């Protein structure tokens, strides 16, 4: 089979080469011209003009539009923005040019169909307007790119004539042209060049890559559009933002690249994914953008980022309406790479190996610090040291602290068979590695000819975790192939296959949820004086609190294997001119298998015997689960496009249906016969089994109409009639329309005064309605029973019990989202500067929430119904600059965005501030205003704090503002009318998100620098890693708490220490509210491309090596953030995100 495929590829390559050579021959024959055709001269052609104070460039365009002449000139020497005036009827072009020559000090010479423009200073007496019949000149040369690589197929022609040719496979060309003619060298993706032919016979040209993006094609719903003709709010990026970076998922690569695309990396766990949001808070029930890969919903966290060709984000209703029910909060369209026409297959290899280090690593108090803290706290409260730290105990801790060879535990004088712990352990260092590896390898092959093209890739990702005591590994395998075959001139078929498999082994959890996935390996209950081992070598134990080193090493594991396979078949027909019909059918089978296994962990007496087992590990058990999802998608759509004079129209209509069938099964058994073998057949305990099934479907018909008049006035209508099985039949279907308008101001006649500066100026306006079907469960309108076994015996058995269903609303229906958007797009200075600005409002109505309170006698909770509204307003800005010279190319891209959300309808009769209420700004943080720390007992007792904290007030306690002036500090009754001394002290909504990307290329070197951040955000860190030491003596104490108040340290950050009961410290307040704004150097990559002369000796087309870093540096307002919380996360309890430093290479054959 492999030999057959290779023979076919070689045959394709030969056919492509021969075809290309034949095309060159025909092109030369068709474009060749041996003489000057008969044409009118400038004194024979007459025009009528009425120009007042118009630019020279506008004058040229006016003449060209009314005649067959084309102006040729050198951009650097002719001032195109100088103004002229001329108003004459039926006058020859010759006379017109004489008039303009007098106003501008220019001379004009007609050479065939061209009018060549030159400067003509006043002191010269050269004739200002002339007609020349010049001798033919044989011109030869070579066309190359900036790296010196030959460019085949470059068009070399005289504008307005049939004289021209194309460069051959080596970039060479030859052409006979009249002397004085202007040759234009043009090639897709490169800037055209104009050269005036004098008497030179050899003209070699270096073409530079195109800077501008006016002709950029953007993927939209079920089609593409030129960016310059878009009327909706659409942003796009190309594959370059994802390539050559040590990233494991698309979210990491997109963060900060598109304005108001908000991406959160909630965890740094191997294989951890990102969450996406478009334009801010969506609904009180949640909601996320619809993410489509080649028109099909897919889990992007499983996709190889190197397979991505482009990404478009549809932000407003006008752009997203065609996707209906799931597109209320934006659409992310991902297009994967496909084959390309080439004379031979192109093979690419890339590898990247990285070292990861945690950005934030928790550090707890050491043994002496904790002992000092607890003793100080207890002496302040009870007048004596903490009860555990007797004199003997303290001596033992100090002895080991000063001399680690001293015992880390000793027998309890009161019970000689129980250990007391006197160690000094840095648990974070014991549990978390300082660095851990990651590597990624990709291979791809692409090619094709006029009928067949292909792209195939393989990817392997290997990632280790931060846990020092557990061998955590994540492996991902990706295979993708895109094949397209042109059967006839009017029929084309395609196949896309994507296989994404992943394997993850990570620490087990337990019934008390001590070790949830996505959390830091460090646990909040590990004290500094607790050793890892007792002096006899057994694992140290402390009642029911787990020794985490023992747990990670001995307890067991969790395994998760995902097999995700996508098959897509497509058929494209063009039965008649300007009409295309598409059929696409996709089948997805996703199978997830999990194994959760843990065994009993013993605790030990002093004599080495087992004192018992940790209760959360006893009995040992194994649980196996299987999730099987089958997803089917049918898309059928057709479009028609045509031009009638100045009217361009495009009509598209189609049908979409999607079905999801989910199945779940699990089994569990306790008491393993052999603890180290997690097989159910080897267990003898009780069995538990369960299963579940659910289905879901949507069906919709959609249409889009585009109208473009004269390149100036743009209109687009989108509509979708959508139905979802999540709603009752009577409310299942709804129609969601949108309308958008655009005005290309730069194409207006009156814009001529600015057209030498502006390449494009466009105004956009859109309005649309969308539905949101993101409701809990697949059957929210059906009253469903639940069943289970009860926990007491009846006839020596636990009987099955069926529970009555709760109340449901019979009128449950869509949340509706209405969006308004106004935007402007600009490109200036020959496409060097581009900018886009949008302002929007999104109204989410009929959000699902509880209904009116029901009488208590009913003994049922309120059903959910459509009874709440939300308003979100915001803006987003994108500005880019591109510049290049012969050796240097550089660019800067800035994104900036902001949004706020407000509840406009919600049933909260009492006005509880703990719930939503009308007028509430989403993200509000209510809390107390802290005024300082009391320096005396009298100052601490000046106000009554009994409603906030039950302890006796003393010097070192926090002071709060009495906002309601009642002489006491209290929460009131927690309502808007009586919030007590609480007020809105902050907001956790990220404000003013920004990103700045700079890329430079100098000769063979390239440098990418990317900064990203948030300018305003408040967070309240409510976790045991932060202030938990004030509420429970069993919590580990953050090392930061060592900066506590004493008479000798009156300016401390923290109040006096407490053993427990510090509810005033952990109450939300201004003192410990954190400023989570940040600026982060997200990426820095330095690359070098080896010279062609060197790589071609080794039969390689290109070799590039690079070094790169991710999350390299940051600055933030969080207090001592490296020990507290990453600004992108909400506390040190989560698995830390990491810095990556990598080395990589790209090789093309």
Describe this structure in words.
It is built from 13 helices and 56 strands. The chain is 10% helix and 45% strand. β28 and β29 form a beta hairpin. Among the domains are: 2-31 and 135-206, Sandwich (Immunoglobulin-like), CATH 2.60.40; 46-132, Phage tail protein beta-alpha-beta fold; 224-339, TonB-dependent receptor, plug domain (Ferric Hydroxamate Uptake Protein, Chain A, domain 1), CATH 2.170.130; 367-423, no CATH class.
The CATH class assignment of the domain at 224-339 is Mainly Beta
DSSP strand content: 35-45%
Distance between the termini: 23 Å
Tell me, what's the shape?
elongated
CATH homologous superfamily of the domain at 224-339 - what is it? TonB-dependent receptor, plug domain
Low-pLDDT residue intervals, each spanning 5 or more residues: 1-37
Look at the structure and give the mean pLDDT: 86
What is the fold-level CATH name, i.e. the topology of the domain at 224-339?
Ferric Hydroxamate Uptake Protein, Chain A, domain 1
Structure classification? mainly beta
What integer value in Å does the Rg equal? 36 Å
CATH architecture of the domain at 224-339: Beta Complex
The largest sheet is:
22 strands, antiparallel, barrel
Number of beta strands? 56
Number of helices: 13
What is the helix fraction of residues, given as a range?
Answer: 10-25%
